[in-house]
Amino acid sequence: MPQPKAMPLFGIEFEYLLIDSGGPQAGRIRDFTNLDFLELSALLADKPGLDDPELAAGDMGIRSGYWYLEGDERAHPDGSFSTLAVKGIEIRTPPRPGVEAALACLLDIETQLSQRLAAHGLGLAIAALNPRHARYDFDTPLNAFEHQLRAEDHEYDGSEIATLTFGPDINLSMPDWDFDQNLNAARKLNYYAPFIVPFSFNSPWYAGAPWHGWSRRTWMRCAHRPAVKLFVDPADFPVLARESTLVRPARLTREIGRIEFKAFDAMPSLELLGACCHLLMGLCLDETLPGRSEHADVDLYRIAAVKGFEEAEVAHGARRTLAAAQQALAQAGDPVSAKTLAPLENTLASHTLPAHALLASGRMYQPGGLAQRESNYS
Questions:
Q1: Could you tell me the keywords of this UniProt record (predicted)?
Q2: Cα 301–Cα 205–Cα 67 angle in degrees, nearest 5
């Protein structure tokens, strides 16, 4: 029997919509139009993970601990932090050995966060796209400093889209891999992303009405936001950036070698999230798939966003990718992880996406967090 490879490290960032949990407007979506950043951040300031050295705090210093408000960061004309146009809240786990440990950590943090929010009349909800708005407009208009910052820093590219969209960032690192192995895996994930993201499609609503496809989030996002990032030593970044557009300078030493996959829609269940984490691990371990890319195939993403697995090219690519990941996990001595991909096989066979269930429910989001839906996501 082949020996298992070194246990990969996983960290998960998951974005949630906020809603009123009770009162006369129970279920009302709370966002940048009706949330006060300073008031809400004060309610959530006492939180776990503030002293965790494995997590970066972000440029403006507002991303700290295991949860934080997420949205569009605004600055004063002198460059100091002004406010945040709140889109929702994000949980992030520290790196954990293996998928199951990361998922357990995510659920533990989610439970603590849900209890805190409930005490203030708020609750979590899952949606891949804010279903209320057709667009996010800057209020107030960008000042000169902000215009310059966003022109120079590509992390702000598509911020008007990111402020409406929700998804998991799945972070994995292989402890014994070098840069070439990491870059090879990142390029592979970038190439095959349009085939695997339909497993998560969960945004069939747009601007208060049903959209004509299954992932308005993917359709909007794919031309503006990266699907994959690879974090490297800042000292090596100037040279490596000439080799790949996927690399980013690590903010912490622990981040070096981390691959971040950002293209999935926010998923309605822990089962689906876990399956997709194992799928990414299998694709990184695979040595048979030939595709590699540095840039997004926008046309293919948008075909997938509208048609899902009804499109033959997308279904064929997903089937091939899923089989390769299953084989790689089994060959690595991890048959249990290979079996966790079974729900994805069922989705592919039935062409039934999470968006189908959401649309059929008549709801524009799933109330509650992942703990309420640990299985049966289809």
A1: Ligase
A2: 85
Q: Report how far Cα 155 is from the mean position of its chain's Cα atoms.
A: 15
Conformational region of residue 15, where left means phi above 0, alpha means psi within -120 to 50, and beta covers everything else: beta
Locate 282 and state its tokens.
Answer: 């299998």
By the 10 Å C-beta count (0-12 exposed, 13-18 middle, 19+ buried), 198 is classed as buried
Q: What letter would DSSP give residue 31?
A: S
Q: What is the pLDDT of residues 186-235, one digit of tens each?
A: 999 999 999 999 999 999 999 999 999 999 999 999 999 999 999 999 99
Q: Where are the domains of the chain?
A: 8-125+131-164
Give the model's pLDDT for residue 373.
61
Both tokens of residue 63?
């991303």
**What is the average pLDDT value for the chain, to the nearest integer?**
94
Query: Rounded distance, CA 361 to CA 29, Å?
Result: 17
7 phi and psi angles, rounded to 5 deg: -65, 120
Confidence of residue 154 (pLDDT cuts 50, 70, 90): confident
Give 244-247 contacts, CB < 8 A, sequence gap 24+: 244/183, 244/186, 244/187, 244/294, 245/294, 245/295, 246/183, 246/186, 246/187, 246/190, 246/294, 247/183
Please give the model's pTM, rounded to 2 decimal places: 0.94
**Gyration radius from the chain CA atoms:** 20
- The arithmetic mean of pLDDT across residues 357-361, rounded, is 96
63 by DSSP, 3-state: which? Answer: coil
For 346-349, the CB contacts below 8 A with 24+ separation are 346/378, 347/199, 347/309, 347/378, 348/199, 348/309, 348/315, 348/318, 348/319, 348/322
Helices 298-307 and 312-331: crossing angle in degrees, nearest 10, is 100
**With 0-12 CB in 10 A as exposed, 13-18 as middle and 19+ as buried, what is 289?**
middle
* Residue corresponding to tokens 């999935």: 264
Categorize the per-residue pLDDT at 376 as very low, low, confident or very high, splitting at 50, 70 and 90. very low
Burial class (CB in 10 A: 0-12, 13-18, 19+), 41: middle
State how far the Cα of 217 lies from the Cα of 199, in Å rounded to an integer: 14
254: number of Cβ within 10 Å:
18
- Is the predicted pLDDT of residue 375 greater than 70, yes or no? no
